[in-house]
Inverse folding.
């Protein structure tokens, strides 16, 4: 199994980052504008993009500490993988330790998704620090996969 790993520091409180990760409005302002569903534990959030989308079941949501989703619908490579956001306060920053865990193989699509996750995590950082993220469809295009 393979994982995508990223770390960013956001000049803000863990609470502000947690809100952006656990509300439909917050998620739509940094990942994709076409977001809906139930962000409560046990609920499913739907994220749609031009080439398709993902449905994430919320497995865990610990305020200011952790958000965990499992992919229940989307590209075959994503089904059953888990998306982790672990938060901690460090020297005036909220550190986000991101992990997209459980890829069966490090296929080319995983390389693409790693780059896209990095751009979206920077969108999250920008949203919290400046009030403006870069969610899809206004995100950075990196290839024909978007």
């Amino acid at each position: 199994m393979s994982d995508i790993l990223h770390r960013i520091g956001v000049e803000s409180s863990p609470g502000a980052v947690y809100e952006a990760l656990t509300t439909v409005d917050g998620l739509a302002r940094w990942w994709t504008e076409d977001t809906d569903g139930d962000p409560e534990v046990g609920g499913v959030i739907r994220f749609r993009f031009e080439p398709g989308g993902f449905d994430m079941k919320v497995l865990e949501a610990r305020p200011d500490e952790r958000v965990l989703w499992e992919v229940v619908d989307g590209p075959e490579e994503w089904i059953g993988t888990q998306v982790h956001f672990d938060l901690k306060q460090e020297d005036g920053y909220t550190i986000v330790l991101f992990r997209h865990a459980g890829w069966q193989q490090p296929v080319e699509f995983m390389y693409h998704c790693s780059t896209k996750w990095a751009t979206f995590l920077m969108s999250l950082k920008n949203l919290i620090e400046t009030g403006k993220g870069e969610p899809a469809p206004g995100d950075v295009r990196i290839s024909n996969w978007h």
Observations:
- Helices lie at 14-22, 24-28, 108-130.
- The domain at 2-130 is CATH 3.30.530.20 (Alpha-D-Glucose-1,6-Bisphosphate; Chain A, domain 4).
- Strands lie at 2-10, 34-37, 44-49, 52-62, 66-73, 82-90, 93-103.
- The first strand starts at residue 2 and ends at 10.
